[in-house]
Specification:
With 197 residues, the protein is of the alpha/beta class. It has five helices and eleven strands, in the order E-E-H-E-H-E-H-E-E-E-E-E-E-E-H-H. It is 19% helix and 29% strand. The strands form two sheets. Strands 1, 2, 3, 4, 5, 6, 7, 10 and 11 form a nine-stranded mixed sheet that branches. Strands 8-9 form a two-stranded antiparallel sheet. Strand 8 and strand 9 form a beta hairpin.
Amino acid sequence: MAALNTGRRGVMDGPIKPLRREWHMAGAALTIASENPLDTLVGMVATQYVQPGDVIVIEAAGRMDGACWGATMTWAAKESGAAGIVIDGAVLTTGVIINHEELPVFCRGSAPFHAGQVGGGSINVPIVCGGIIVNPGDIILGDWDGVIVLPKDRTGEILDKTGQGRLAAYPSAGRSAPLGERGFEEQLCAIDGFEWN
């Protein structure tokens, strides 16, 4: 992921990672919050409201004692055109998601059960996912490094400031210390208590 100057407030908790290392995604947030973080009913309904390119973002309170998402829901979201899923919790039927669905799913891990499809909740309201407030329509970016949230009203400004749309590797600098001119060594030596052995 290109470095983005979002501030630390825009970065979700580090344990939220893609189930497959090579998965990455970008899209506008469609948010979900269930009254019971382990209930799947609201998520199942939300798959019917996905617009092509949406990233479904689920508030699940970091719960790992059960799942709020699974392979059937992933299939339904993919069929509706979703670009990815972000879950602040666990998924079930992980092997099917990884091997058959081909839709990037980012989560904290997996669990063997869910609480059923009985509870209420909300779709497209402000939520908290991975310690970050996510509003409907915010831009969600994710890869193996993690997940970043760009507030929809600041997305253009943030991307303009980065100046990094580059996905390729850095070109060869033609010298042995390509970062030597950036002043990092001086910055390190100026820190009280630093010792160089």
